[in-house]
């Protein structure tokens, strides 16, 4: 297994939850659960107004804070929007781009995702680009071709070096917030296909360096099985990231998986 070439990442997506006041209690509960040994990266993607409080609450820990969305323009007449530089100034290191909720409710297109990705990278953020299919698309057997299309649009214009700064999150839409996660087998099939896409478009070295996350009802009960898959390098977690205890258990599962894989790699 060649997971040694990429980072394991456990990223929480708080969505429209968690006020600046609430984040203090959350941090107090999560901090003791953060393992000292850095076997996976930990990210929490907060609502924009909560980012500074989250950065303060997790200062001197290894938890990085991210945004959930951003505009591709640097500034201007875009009421209600925030730019990549604003996220950076607030202390964010990551940002989610192209979450299916943004695509579904706010009409975000694949072309928007591509522009946002370029703007995020130019600002020095680490983008987490979401792709995924609806249940209808899965049932007609179109999941992998749709995701290949989403990726080719999202990653358009990147070179083999820059793409290594991108994290891909495979998030089947039918699994998000439904309690019905993809099976490890189904999730791995798509994540493997994403890796193949990366290899054909950016070469083997980049393909093995890009972290691919699974998202969609990941919980403490199913995390270990999903994270053990060869092409799944971590999770993007919505509901379960709102409870510090559950998020801590998922981090523990990722640490344990990374430890086992490191031992396997050393034995090879
Ligand atoms: C998400 O919103 O990215 C997500 C995966 O949500 P949940 O874990 O609640 O399915």
Sketch the topology as an H/E string, one letter per element.
EHEHEHEHHEHHEHHEHEH
Which range best describes the helical content: under 10%, 10-25%, 25-40%, 40-55%, 55-70% or over 70%? 40-55%
Number of helices: 11
How far is the first residue's CA from the last residue's CA?
Answer: 9 Å
Mean pLDDT: 97
Q: What structural class do helix, strand and pairing data support?
A: alpha/beta
Q: What characterizes the major β-sheet?
A: 8 strands, parallel, barrel
Instruction: Report the β-strand fraction as a percent range.
Output: 5-15%
Could you list the spans in which at least 5 consecutive residues all have pLDDT below 50? none
Could you state the oligomeric state of the chains shown?
Answer: single chain
Strand order of the largest sheet: 1-2-3-4-5-6-7-8
Bound molecules: phosphoenolpyruvate
Record field, number of beta strands: 8
Question: Judging from the principal axes of the Cα atoms, what is the shape?
Answer: globular
Rg over CA atoms, rounded to whole Å, is: 17 Å
In short:
44% of the residues lie in helices and 14% in strands. The protein is an alpha/beta fold.
């Amino acid at each position: 297994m060649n997971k040694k070439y990429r980072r394991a990442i456990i990223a929480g997506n708080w969505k429209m939850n968690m006020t600046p006041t609430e984040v203090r209690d959350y941090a107090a509960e999560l901090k003791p659960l953060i393992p000292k040994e850095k076997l996976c990266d930990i990210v929490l993607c907060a609502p924009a107004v909560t980012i500074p409080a989250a950065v303060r609450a997790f200062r001197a820990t290894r938890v990085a804070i991210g945004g959930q969305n951003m505009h591709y323009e640097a500034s201007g007449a875009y009421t209600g929007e925030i730019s990549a530089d604003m996220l950076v100034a607030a202390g964010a290191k990551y940002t989610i781009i192209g979450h299916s909720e943004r695509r579904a409710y706010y009409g975000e297109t694949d072309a928007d995702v591509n522009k946002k990705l370029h703007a995020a990278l130019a600002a020095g953020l680490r983008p987490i680009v979401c792709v995924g299919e609806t249940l209808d698309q899965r049932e007609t057997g179109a999941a992998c071709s749709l995701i290949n299309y989403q990726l080719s649009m999202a990653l358009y214009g990147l070179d083999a070096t820059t793409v290594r700064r991108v994290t891909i999150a495979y998030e089947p839409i039918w699994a998000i917030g439904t309690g019905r996660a993809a099976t490890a087998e189904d999730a791995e099939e798509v994540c493997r296909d994403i890796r193949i896409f990366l290899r054909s478009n950016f070469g083997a070295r980049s393909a093995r360096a890009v972290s691919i996350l699974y998202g969609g009802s990941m919980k403490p009960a199913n995390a270990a099985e999903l994270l053990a898959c060869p092409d799944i390098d971590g999770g993007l977690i919505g509901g379960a990231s709102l409870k510090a205890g559950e998020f801590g258990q998922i981090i523990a599962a990722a640490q344990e998986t990374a430890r086992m894989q490191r031992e396997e790699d050393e034995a090879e």
